[in-house]
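Hi R.,

As promised on Friday, here is the backbone we talked about, encoded as structure tokens. Could you run it through your design pipeline when you get a chance and send me back a sequence?
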């Protein structure tokens, strides 16, 4: 088959408006999403306000600063918790002084190697074959800033300050959670 001249894909536009979308569910609970991330890699990020401590449950892909964008929600202290250490859930954990995840995945987060395959992961060209989410191309539909270099993206090292395990109690002052170890999707997946 004759080949035409190679055409490079059209450059991504810069996102208009804010990178993160905030949806208050009331009672100090906010759902945060990244609408310009493709659905397969778009994480539900939850901010939960507590009297003595806030939780940020997962932090998304890390292409834009979650900490800066959500600072208006924070109380005195905030801990970023990971439901599991996959790259689409821990991209912003390095921004938080308190960083929690299951003990089985703490080393991966510290090494900034969430899947053990991160060196091969390129957000500018993803190839997803999961049924219902098949896609090839960039992981974003817009860039956070006009000059953002998608190929330079990486998960940054985080310092894990608390290693969670089954039955651990999380006390926010006026809200309390119990850690449930739910291995399957990943060895250290947890629920609260
Ligand atoms: Zn995952």
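Update: got your reply. Pasting your designed sequence below so it's all in one thread:
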């Amino acid at each position: 088959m004759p080949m035409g001249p190679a055409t490079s894909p059209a450059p991504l536009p810069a996102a208009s408006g804010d990178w993160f979308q905030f949806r208050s569910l009331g009672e100090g609970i906010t759902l945060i999403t990244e609408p310009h991330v493709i659905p397969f890699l778009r994480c539900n990020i939850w901010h939960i306000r507590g009297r003595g401590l806030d939780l940020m449950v997962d932090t998304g892909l890390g292409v834009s600063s979650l900490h800066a964008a959500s600072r208006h929600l924070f109380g005195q202290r905030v801990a970023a918790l990971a439901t599991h250490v996959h790259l689409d859930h821990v991209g912003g954990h390095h921004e938080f002084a308190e960083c929690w995840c299951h003990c089985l995945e703490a080393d991966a987060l510290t090494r900034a190697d969430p899947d053990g395959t991160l060196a091969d992961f390129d957000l500018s060209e993803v190839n997803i074959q999961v049924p219902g989410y098949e896609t090839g191309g960039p992981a974003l539909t817009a860039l956070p800033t006009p000059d953002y270099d998608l190929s330079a993206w990486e998960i940054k090292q985080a310092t894990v300050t608390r290693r969670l395990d089954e039955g651990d109690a999380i006390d926010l002052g006026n809200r309390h959670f119990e850690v449930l170890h739910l291995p399957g999707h990943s060895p250290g997946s947890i629920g609260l």
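One thing I noticed while checking it: Residues 84, 86, 185-186 surround zinc ion (CB under 6 Å).

Thanks again,
M.
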